[in-house]
C-alpha cells in the first residue's frame, strides 16, 4: 500500500469499557476524510518487527463518530491472539493510528425508503455502526421510530449504554422525544444473565419466538419495518434466515429493500 492511500492520525483519547477486552479510541480526522454514517474505515499500524516503520497491518473498523464530528472514534474487542487489536488497545494519546483515505461499506440509511420503523440489531462491537447512524440527525428525521437492540454476553459489555440512556436529555435529541417519548426503543439483551426488563436469551431466539417484538412493543412488519443486522457471522446467518421467512430481503437492481446486513469480522 502506497503512502498516498492513507493518512497518519493521532490518538486523542482512550476509553476502557472492560479491561483487557473492550475499548474505544478517538483519533484526529483528516479534513478530506468524508463518510456516511454506518460506513467503516481501514485503520493501520506498523508491524511488530518495525514499530516505527510504515503501517503494514490493516483492519476494518466502523466509525462510532458521526459524519459531522471533528474526530474519528472506533470501538474494538481485544482478540488476545490477534496481531492487531492487542496492539491497538495499548495505544495512548499522542500515538499514531493510520487511516485509509476512502471509507467503505453500505450499512447506511439510504439503502431504505424513508418512513416506517428502523430496527438496528447488533451483537458485540457491531454496535459501532449504529452509534454513528444514531449520532446523525438525518436518521431521526427519516423514520417514525427506531428500535436499537444490543446483544452481549454480560451487562458489563454494554458499552455506550449510559450515553444512549441519556440521549433524551441532550439538546440534539430532546425534541424527538418530546414529539414521541418512544422515538428510540433501546433493548439491551444478554445471553449469560437476565437484564432488567429483558430475558436471558440470544437475539435470534427472540426473533424466532416473537420475544423481540413483545419487548419492543412493535411488530416486525415487512411493509413498514426496515432492519439492519451487524455482528458475528453466526448471528447474521441465522437472523437472515428467520427474517427472510418473514418477508425481509435486501434491495436489488435499484429497488430499495427492507434488510441491510454487514459482517463485523
UniProtKB/TrEMBL annotation:
The keyword Nucleotide-binding applies. It catalyses: 2 reduced [2Fe-2S]-[ferredoxin] + NADP(+) + H(+) = 2 oxidized [2Fe-2S]-[ferredoxin] + NADPH. Gene3D superfamilies: Nucleotide-binding domain of ferredoxin-NADP reductase (FNR) module, Translation factors. Its EC number is 1.18.1.2. PROSITE patterns: FAD_FR. Residues 4-110 form the FAD-binding FR-type domain. Belongs to the ferredoxin--NADP reductase type 1 family. This is ferredoxin--NADP(+) reductase.
Amino acid at each position: 500500500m502506497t503512502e498516498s492511500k492513507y493518512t497518519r492520525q493521532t490518538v486523542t483519547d482512550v476509553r476502557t469499557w472492560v479491561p483487557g477486552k473492550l475499548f474505544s479510541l478517538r483519533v484526529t480526522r483528516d479534513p478530506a476524510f468524508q463518510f456516511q454514517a454506518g460506513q467503516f474505515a481501514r485503520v493501520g499500524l506498523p508491524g511488530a518487527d518495525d514499530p516505527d516503520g510504515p503501517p503494514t497491518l490493516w483492519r476494518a473498523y466502523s466509525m462510532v463518530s458521526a459524519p459531522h464530528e471533528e474526530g474519528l472514534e472506533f470501538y474494538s474487542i481485544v482478540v488476545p491472539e490477534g496481531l492487531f487489536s492487542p496492539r491497538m488497545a495499548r495505544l495512548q494519546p499522542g500515538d499514531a493510528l493510520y487511516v485509509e483515505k476512502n471509507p467503505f461499506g453500505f450499512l447506511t440509511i439510504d439503502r431504505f425508503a424513508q418512513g416506517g420503523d428502523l430496527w438496528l440489531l447488533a451483537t458485540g462491537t457491531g454496535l459501532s455502526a449504529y452509534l454513528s447512524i444514531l449520532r446523525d440527525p438525518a436518521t431521526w428525521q427519516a423514520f417514525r421510530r427506531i428500535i436499537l437492540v444490543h446483544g452481549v454476553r454480560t451487562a458489563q459489555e454494554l458499552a455506550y449504554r449510559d450515553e444512549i440512556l441519556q440521549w433524551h436529555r441532550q439538546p440534539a435529541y430532546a425534541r424527538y422525544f418530546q414529539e414521541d417519548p418512544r422515538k428510540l426503543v433501546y433493548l439491551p439483551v444478554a445471553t449469560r444473565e437476565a437484564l432488567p426488563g429483558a430475558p436471558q436469551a440470544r437475539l435470534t431466539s427472540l426473533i424466532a419466538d416473537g420475544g423481540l417484538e413483545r419487548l419492543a412493543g412493535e411488530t416486525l412488519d415487512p411493509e413498514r419495518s426496515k432492519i439492519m443486522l451487524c455482528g458475528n457471522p453466526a448471528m447474521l446467518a441465522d437472523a437472515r434466515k428467520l427474517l427472510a421467512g418473514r418477508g425481509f430481503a435486501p434491495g436489488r437492481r435499484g429497488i430499495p429493500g427492507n434488510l441491510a446486513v454487514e459482517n463485523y469480522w
